[in-house]
Amino acid sequence: MPTYNIKTLQKKNVWETETWQDAETNRWFDKVEMYRWGEVVIYTDEPLDIEEASKNENGFWITLYEIEDQSFDDGCALYFKEFVDVDEEYVDTLWNEDGYMALEDDGFEMTDVETVFYGPLEVKEINEETD
């Protein structure tokens, strides 16, 4: 199975969107976080076109692949969006109160995560050596 190490080459190009939902009341919202730098190791079913993946013209959707390892550095932005049956100010208050714990205590659980790298990337195939 092809394995790749992928790194962002420019600042502020890692975007992680978490969807938080309350299954009982059907309230939900997205929490978006941006990081200055990111690196990930992924497995793919088919080999990547390294040159095309490095250009990364439409964003590289990390969560479409099996992830072995990931590292995001220096979170530089966080905001909430796409509110359904919940008020933005209420979510901000919960977050400022106790972060993830306050969201979970209010009945929300994270139901989805999407991670996208934007901008040019460094893409290297990892050759696994067998014994």
How many helices? The count is 2
Output the structural class. alpha+beta
Average pLDDT confidence is 94
Secondary-structure element order, N to C: EEEHEEHEE
Low-confidence stretches: none
Number of beta-strand segments: 7
Helix content: 10-25%
Describe the structure.
The chain has one domain. With 131 residues, the protein is an alpha+beta fold. Strands 1, 2, 3, 4, 5, 6 and 7 form a seven-stranded antiparallel beta sheet that branches. The protein has helices spanning 50-55, 88-105; strands spanning 3-8, 14-22, 27-43, 60-61, 66-84, 109-117, 121-126. The protein has two helices and seven strands; from the N terminus they run βββαββαββ. The chain is elongated, with a radius of gyration of 17 Å.
From the structure above, extract its key features.
elongated; seven-stranded antiparallel beta sheet; 131 residues; alpha+beta; 2 helices; single chain
Describe, in short, the structure shown.
The chain has 131 residues and is of the alpha+beta class. The chain has helices at 50-55, 88-105, and strands at 3-8, 14-22, 27-43, 60-61, 66-84, 109-117, 121-126.
Topology:
Elements: E1 3-8, E2 14-22, E3 27-43, H1 50-55, E4 60-61, E5 66-84, H2 88-105, E6 109-117, E7 121-126
